[in-house]
Amino acid sequence: MKIGMLGLGRMGMNMARRLLQGGHQVAAYNRSPAKTEELAKEGGEASFSLQELVGKLDERKIVWLMLPAGPVIDEHLEQLTELLAPGDIIIEGGNSYFKDDIRRAKISAAQGLKYVDAGISGGIWGLEVGYCTMVGGRREDFDYLEPLFSTLAPPEGYMYCGPTGAGHFVKMIHNGIEYGMMQAYGEGFALLEASDYKQIDYGDLSRLWNRGSVIRSWLLELLERAFDDDPDLGELHGYVDDSGEGRWTVMQAIESGVSAPVITGALFRRFESRQPDAFENRVLAALRNQFGGHAVRKKGK
Fold it and tell me: Does residue 115 register a pLDDT over 70?
């Protein structure tokens, strides 16, 4: 198949490469032309405007957006609706909020365009091992696009999840689970580090736990790599950002009335990691001092 890839960031570039390796044709456009020129050297077709990108595509055009979540997607969709024709397909593959998909699909449908949302997991390793792909939209559009999903994913690594928004909804829940798993690993290794057994090589331990234990996972494989590179992680600051999907998962838990304390706690720990001298902790210290006369540590002393 022939596809237009809009956005050649960390995910988009390697997805385009994997599609090329799988025998598909890829025309690409990126805000910075250097990335587009780089892909052209590997067999892609370089485009330096949306108009040029659309002009390079087949009669039934397919444009895959790999852009940061938020207004930038809406801006490009607005331009695409003026360039594409009824029956053409837009695939939105960024880390978008599923409710935005529902809104965008209605706007696209008013122009006769087909809209598909694709939640993608695989990170920087996707080019080598494939991208787990979760797809929402009309079933007939999924069936038409299946050769693309099959090429991108590892064996059995893609799935039709349901109507518009389902792909990004499932990816959102996936990322919420990821938050909880990462937090559990972090707390476990912190307990080891605070114990009398901290002489254990954490890289070796991660490797051990991935050999048949019930907590084995790809995350633990990645942690093994991290500890092998930096045994005490001393080169890192304990600042943990979030892409937004953990927040949306917690919001959905509240909306659905579902208890999700692990995911919620993991999200809040990320917030706390960005505040080395958090005001709420100073409030706690002041209260303990006021009601119990407990000692406090004052700055500069």
Answer: yes
